[in-house]
């Protein structure tokens, strides 16, 4: 008998979950995931969407546990995810090692693709970076924002503008065909977010959800996490 585990997850973990589908199936588990900006996933949980397992930022999981929405003691850290700069596949990789290089790249970009600046971790942070560089006004008409990083990267892959640039979490860049990682944000703008899986208080299949979380965080999946952009803690 197959048990279905309903997941609400930040987009950063989508590639990891999809990459483990075979292992879930071998254990009699079916994972049905909804992925998007972490703020939007929190809102869906609070709005009553079915959920057995959450995969969100460590800080948000802790907050939801305090509010009674997460079962205490079930949190499983998956790793640290950096925020990076993406360009279309096949173009020469630009330098993004310092603020001056990043600013020059963005100034020349025909379009700047990134996730929701209100609800997505990377989108919120990237808007702060643009303000710090004094580019938020200059690039306003070239900003292309999307509900989550995966959607933003798919759009970047098909971008018609010359020199299009994207920013989101490294995991979403690495798992999207048609784009490539130029590098992480410069040190002064670096953002590394710990993602954590945890069982929801109202889970219909708490044991199955815990089994999925354990596999996501297990040594057996460590290689997949690393290759997909999750740095070990």
Task: Describe this structure as you would to a colleague.
This protein is of the alpha/beta class. It folds into 2 domains: 3-79 and 195-231, 3-Layer(aba) Sandwich (D-Maltodextrin-Binding Protein, domain 2), CATH 3.40.190.10; 82-189, D-Maltodextrin-Binding Protein, domain 2 (3-Layer(aba) Sandwich). Helix content is 36%, strand content 27%. It has 10 helices and 10 strands. It has helices spanning 14-19, 21-26, 38-46, 58-66, 99-108, 121-132, 149-157, 170-174, 206-217, 222-227, and strands spanning 3-10, 29-36, 53-57, 76-88, 112-115, 143-146, 165-169, 179-184, 192-199, 230-231. Strands 1, 2, 3, 4, 5, 6, 7, 8, 9 and 10 form a 10-stranded mixed beta sheet that branches. Helix 6 links the parallel strand 5 (112-115) and strand 6. The two termini are 35 Å apart.
Keywords summarizing the entry:
single chain, 233 residues, alpha/beta, D-Maltodextrin-Binding Protein, domain 2, 2 domains, 10-stranded mixed beta sheet, 10 strands, 36% helix
Bulk shape: elongated
Number of strands: 10
The count of helical stretches stands at: 10
Overall domain count:
2
Task: Give the CATH topology of the largest domain.
Answer: D-Maltodextrin-Binding Protein, domain 2
Residue share in helices?
25-40%
Order of helices and strands: EHHEHEHEHEHEHEHEEHHE
Give the DSSP E fraction (strand runs of 2 or more residues).
Answer: 25-35%
Structural class: alpha/beta
The CATH architecture category of the largest domain equals: 3-Layer(aba) Sandwich
What profile does the largest beta sheet have? 10 strands, mixed
What radius of gyration results from the CA coordinates?
18 Å
**Mean pLDDT over all positions:** 96
Distance between the termini: 35 Å
Uncertain residue segments? none
CATH superfamily of the largest domain: Periplasmic binding protein-like II
CATH class of the largest domain: Alpha Beta
